[in-house]
Every structure is written in C-alpha cells, then in structure tokens.
C-alpha cells in the first residue's frame, strides 16, 4: 500500500524525495525567493534565528564551490560536521537557515543559482502546489521539506 500524505507537513516530507539533490536545492531557492520575506517572521524564534545565523556564517566563510557542496551534503543527509549540526536543529531553525542561504544567494555571499537553471517538470508541479496553498500550509510544507535533511547527530539533543 502506498502512503498518501494527508497534510502539508507530510506532503513536504515526501515531496522532495522525487527530485535529485540539485533540484531540491533549486526548488527551495525558488520558494524562498518568492515567499521568503513572509516565511522568516513566521518561522523561528529569536534563539532559532541566532543558531541558524551561526550555521549560515560557517557556510558563508567557505569558497563558493564548497558552499554548494555543503548544501548538497545537507540535502542528501551526508555524515559531515555541518550536516550533523544542521540535523540537530529544530524545524523552525532549519527554515531560518535556508532563508539565510537564499538571502546570501541573492546578495552574492553564497554561490548563486546558475542563470540558466530551470526547475524540472516535477519541481514546477511542486512549486505550483506550494503557491496554491494558504500561508500556514506553505510554512508546514516547507517545515516538512527541510526537516529530513541533514545527518543525524549522534547522542546529541535537538537544539
């Protein structure tokens, strides 16, 4: 029997699995550039933003190609230090981290999307679904999408 997600959060957890890592990153970038200004105030508390900013700053200090590699590692659950740090974050802090990355991509501190990048049809379909949702559903969908990313932190408590 196939599991059919029933709410936006569960849909988000399932949705990105059908996309390759670069298209997952591309979809997150498109969503955050279109919805980002409304996502961040709704997502984390002040401490979550500070934690997300700290992890973002670690990525920002890397050369552009390494920044892309770190994002790929997080999206593919690679067992790396930054991916484990990300994996220990709360869902709201994870949302804030991706928001900071999208803002960094816009201002050039993070490697930008290629000018010729286009979402594949499956990504376009997901984007349409997200855009048709009400705001709270969009946040839940994104929370579900970014939650499974990152490596599991061994023996650590969730931040």
UniProtKB/TrEMBL annotation:
Residues 6-157 form the OCP N-terminal domain. Pfam families: Carot_N. PROSITE patterns: OCP_N (PS51773). Signal peptide: none annotated. The keyword Transmembrane helix does not apply. It comes from the Bacteria. Keywords: Antenna complex, Chromophore, Membrane, Phycobilisome, Thylakoid. GO terms for cellular component: phycobilisome. GO terms for molecular function: chloride ion binding. The keyword Thylakoid applies. GO terms for biological process: light absorption. Belongs to the orange carotenoid-binding protein family. This is Orange carotenoid protein. It comes from Allocoleopsis franciscana PCC 7113.
């Amino acid at each position: 029997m196939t599991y059919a997600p029933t709410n936006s959060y569960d849909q988000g957890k399932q949705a990105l699995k059908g996309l390759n890592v670069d298209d997952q990153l591309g979809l997150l970038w498109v969503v955050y550039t279109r919805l980002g200004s409304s996502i961040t105030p709704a997502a984390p508390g002040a401490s979550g933003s500070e934690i997300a900013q700290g992890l973002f700053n670690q990525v920002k200090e890397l050369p552009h190609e390494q920044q892309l590699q770190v994002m790929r590692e997080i999206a593919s659950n690679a067992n790396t230090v930054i991916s484990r740090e990300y994996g220990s974050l709360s869902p709201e802090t994870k949302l804030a981290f991706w928001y900071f990355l999208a803002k960094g991509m816009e201002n050039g501190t993070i490697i930008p999307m290629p000018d010729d990048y286009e979402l594949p049809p499956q990504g376009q379909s997901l984007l349409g679904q997200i855009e048709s949702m009400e705001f709270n559903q969009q946040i839940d969908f994104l929370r579900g999408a970014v939650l499974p990313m990152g490596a599991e932190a061994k023996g650590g408590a969730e931040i």
